[in-house]
Amino acid sequence: MNTRTQESRILTSPEPTDEELAELVKGKTLSVYWYMLRHPEPLTAREIQRGAELSSPSLSMHHLERLRQFGIVEKNVHGQYTIKRDVRIGILNQFMGRGRLLVPRFLFYATFYTSLTAALGTLVWLFLDWYSIVLLALLASVCVVLWYETMKVWREQPFPEGERD
Predict the structure, then answer these.
(1) Local confidence band at 158 (pLDDT 50, 70, 90 cut-offs)
(2) Which residues, in sequence order, are CB contacts of 52 under 8 Å at separation 6+?
(3) Does pTM top 0.70 for this prediction?
């Protein structure tokens, strides 16, 4: 099924599912949605165009209208757009929070296990037996994997921190 057929089928259905939206909201449209998630206040098309670094306000309007047709954003009488439905699609599934506090999900796990490993690392000298050292080594390897995954997801975000805001 091509994209046009999917779009027309979704536009006639009352509420598209997250799976259907994941197929349609990609590329620049996803970048516009990401920018709106990071800035939850009502925004005009020009503000979104500047913030998302789009080439023109009409291109911004095109992507905003697509998001509006899919039921993700709404437009008020002043021409400002706000998020109507918070959907986590694509890479956004890997993030938690809202506004400027969008962080990778793995960050919480990585922080917890790093703290646990540090606490057990201080106690391992009290119980200097082989299974305490093996446990500490396993926890350290879990920390390495979790921090690796956290950084990998952070680098895949549509707008890396500090580049656009």
Answers:
(1) low
(2) 28, 31, 32, 35, 60, 159, 164
(3) no
